Amino acid sequence: ECMGVELDGSQTIKAWGNGRNRSDAVDQAKKNAIRDVIFFGINEGKSECNSKPLIFEVNAQDKYEDYFNVFFADGGEFKNFISLKDERIFDKVYRDKQKTSENVVHGLVVRVLRSELKQKLIQDGIIK
Asked: Does residue 95 contact residue 107 with C-beta atoms inside 8 Å?
């Protein structure tokens, strides 16, 4: 869900992730935010947000699978395009969370540095 756009081209997004524990769920939420900006666009939330994905190519996720496996690996480059500075201290303490029998689901507010991400994909030859 898009919560706003900054003048530098970044998008503030509420993203969800699930994992074995809180740390895994938060990392997955960050990856989901980046993946949605790259492949799907952000369609929910405020209308001012750029709903178009960065990559329009059909099946790009499969075509560039090797690249994105490394990009989204734990500790991978995706972390360079995420900022948590929009998350207020209250939100850090009371993040949206759900617990199922085996997984933890967390929602958090992240800022995706869309313009820097686009430049990286152009530089690496993924988009033109």
From this structure: yes
Q: List pLDDT tens digits, range 35-69.
A: 999 998 888 888 777 678 899 888 888 999 999 99
The residue ranges of DSSP E strands in 7-117, in sequence order, are 11-19, 82-83, 96-99, 104-112
pLDDT tens string 75-123? 889 999 998 765 553 444 344 555 555 778 888 889 999 999 999 999 9
Predicted TM-score of the model (pTM): 0.82
DSSP alpha helix (H) spans, 36-96: 60-63, 65-71, 89-93
Phi, psi of 63 (to 5 degrees): -60, -40
Amino acid at 117: L
Alpha-carbon span 56 to 25, nearest angstrom: 28
